[in-house]
């Protein structure tokens, strides 16, 4: 058995903890059922989802809105912020209805088993569920074959990511790549080729 990949993984993990500290690891890995999550520590809140984006606004207003500390709720050890008292009340009645898929991590990253990234202002509703992306390039790559990528993301989330530690999973899949792995450059080329201009040039 070749132990080199595992030794490398351990060294990278220890380096990440030393460089990044425990704050981010704690913020992203609550002990509740909704874990890991794309959260940060901010002020007195140790775990703010999506840097305070209002998760209800995506559903009821079809837009990204930043929440405010005065309209906050706690659910599964995570702080959620809202742009209005009305949105907070909706969340408090049915929190599970408004949770972003994959803990708010980039859906395209989860399709590769990597819980990483996720910008609250880059998102999409698919079948009534909220998906966050790590920027427009990630969203474009995901949409090349949305059905396939969604199935991959759901499978990796269910079988590897959900309930685990985001840092360990991230490092694992950055070292032991999934069979369909594509680099950022590969994805950029695929997006360019799939665009109307790229398709016309073929």
Properties at a glance:
47% helix, 17% strand, globular, 202 residues, two-stranded antiparallel sheet, alpha+beta, two-stranded antiparallel ribbon, single chain, 10 helices
How would you portray this structure in words?
With 202 residues, the protein is α+β, with helices and mostly antiparallel strands. Helices cover 47% and strands 17% of the residues. The strands form three sheets. A two-stranded antiparallel sheet has the order 1-2. It has a two-stranded antiparallel ribbon with strand order 3-4. The chain has a two-stranded antiparallel sheet with strand order 5-6. Helix 1 packs across helix 8 and helix 6 packs across helix 9. The chain starts with a helix and ends with a helix.
What shape does the CA trace take? globular
Total number of distinct structural domains: 2
**pLDDT averaged over residues:** 90
Tell me the distance between the termini: 46 Å
The largest sheet is: 2 strands, antiparallel
Weakly predicted, low-confidence segments? 17-21
Radius of gyration: 18 Å
Beta fraction = 15-25%
The helical percent reads 40-55%
Strand order of the largest sheet: 1-2
Number of strands: 6
What structural class do helix, strand and pairing data support?
Answer: alpha+beta
Report the order of strands and helices. HHEEHEEHHEEHHHHH
Discrete helix count:
10
